[in-house]
Amino acid sequence: MQLWRKAGVSDAHILAATFDPAVFLGMEDSLGTAEKGKIADLVLLDANTLDNITNTEKIEAVIINGHLFNSKNLKAMKATIIAFNKKAKLQR
């Protein structure tokens, strides 16, 4: 998203980027926006991306397939992945 911003794409257009692929795929009735009855995986942010597109990095929670992962869960998952990668590098 930040690369698009550097290329001159407006924040509003960047944030609308999920709708265009849904239209292209002919699936805008079920994807592309957060509405009742649609399939939606969501990233909940702690700051407004229209104020600054880098606020996309301020993740408070993620909802995937109806499961909520709060920031504490996400930090724990990240730590597990980092530890796994370090261990895998040592075993090479």
General description of the model:
The chain has 92 residues and is an alpha+beta fold. The chain has two domains: 1-39, no CATH class; 41-92, no CATH class. The protein contains four helices and three strands. It has a three-stranded antiparallel beta sheet. Strand 2 (59-64) and strand 3 (67-70) form a beta hairpin. The longest helix is centred in the C-terminal third of the chain and has 20 residues, at 71-90.
Give the SSE map.
Blueprint: H1 2-6, H2 11-15, H3 19-24, E1 42-45, E2 59-64, E3 67-70, H4 71-90
Antiparallel strand pairs: 1-2, 2-3
Largest beta sheet: strand ordering? 1-2-3
How much is the average pLDDT? 87
**Helical element count?**
4
How far apart, in Å, are the first and last alpha carbons?
Answer: 34 Å
Instruction: Give the DSSP E fraction (strand runs of 2 or more residues).
Output: 15-25%
Ranges where pLDDT stays below 50 over 5 or more residues in a row are none
Counting structural domains, the number is 2
DSSP, total strands: 3
Shape: extended
Structural class: alpha+beta
Helix content: 25-40%
In angstroms, what is the radius of gyration?
A: 17 Å
Helix/strand order, N-terminal first = HHHEEEH
How does the major sheet shape up? Answer: 3 strands, antiparallel
